[in-house]
Design goal:
It contains 13 helices and eleven strands. It is α+β, with helices and mostly antiparallel strands. The strands form four sheets. Strands 3-6-11-10 form a four-stranded mixed beta sheet. The chain starts with a helix and ends in a 25-residue tail after the last strand. Helix 5 crosses helix 8, helix 6 packs antiparallel against helix 8 and helix 8 packs antiparallel against helix 9.
Length: 443
Amino acid sequence: LGLLVVAQFFTSTEVLASTAIMAFLGVAVLVLGVRGPVIPSVHHAVSSLLVAGATAAALLAVPLYLLLAGPQHINGPAQEGLALYSGNLGGPIVPHATMLFHTAAWARLARLWFGSTDFVEDGTYLGAPLLALLALVSLRFWRERLVRFGLTMAIVGFILALGPRLHVGTTKTGIWMPFDVLEHASILKSLAPVRFMLYVDLFVALVMAVGIDRVRTSGLWPPKDPARIPPQPPGGPMAGRTAAFVGLAAMIPLVPAWPYATQQEVMPNWFFSADVRTVPAGAVVVTYPFTAPYPSLPMLWQAQVRMRYRMPVGYAIVPGPGGRATFNARPTTVQTLLGDYYTHSPAPALSPSLVERARADLEGWHTWAVVVTPERAAPSPDIAVFQGVVSALPTRTVQLFQAVLGEPPTWHRGVAVWTNCPAAPGERTTLAPRHPAMLNKTP
């Protein structure tokens, strides 16, 4: 258990925290449901938890320090407004667009009911057939401790998934919900309520598994007259297979909409060429698109070359003013300009002062290379065929770096590259553009 805690910490600290919460509540449910002495069970559990806790504490001491008090630690939640990711009381019965079996009206309703526009986070849907079967199994086998425990924990998980305030359909009732307590705990502010549906699914599966097994061994209904129990006990292999088939049929509404939406990401040729190996290990490369908070493609390119070079920014949560979480702690002139270029927003003209500020950014980063890749776009007068994809040349971006670096790029199949930049360590960018007219022309 201690090693699993360590593995989960490095996989998802959020899931580790929510698992700990559900485990604590699960222990409370078990203790309250025990009839008779609980000391032997408590002794066994405490001894096991002490060993697991000591193991996890020893291996996670430094990572926990870095997370909670290290030089790059974050004060407050990792993201603001996570309460928007709350479930709806009607969510389990209304399928959304990610399900194979849905209608346009249902999908609109599910999206309207979910608190966030990021509806793919909504995991509350279970389907009416599964809910009906769950109710039937719970009624028939309520005497089974595992069934009572599983159903109780599924309800607890669903209540937490509803978030700090109850939403019923389009009505925001304002009714207080238990998750509000977690939202005010400083170390738990980064929990997204709807993700507690992970545990609802887990415990629903437990109840269904126990139900199928008990139908196999004792049948769906007990005999009306126990004195007339036949020699052959109720249930049997056929009853078990039938129960399993019914259980699978009840999950048909949960089949996702296949195939999943995908998008092919094109790797610029320069990152495959021998030229990328001329970049000194650990040198800084500025790419376009420029990440944070724009596309994370440059991080994919960096990973493909085995992290040979560094980048000034990335799509990552970092501490900003006051240690609050942000994706963009210190916006720079280059970042602002490239963001405007990428979103096709109006941007200021390349005045000498603007160029000088952008030059200062590159020098501050000790930039060794600049790589500008084409943008995927509809055919236009300025296009390039980029590995079979028609792409628009980012003219404004090329003009910016041409003005800042004082020289035109070299071209690699539509990719503009500047290497050994004058803004490398120990050098100053004092060159003027070789041809001033280049600032106003498309390369």
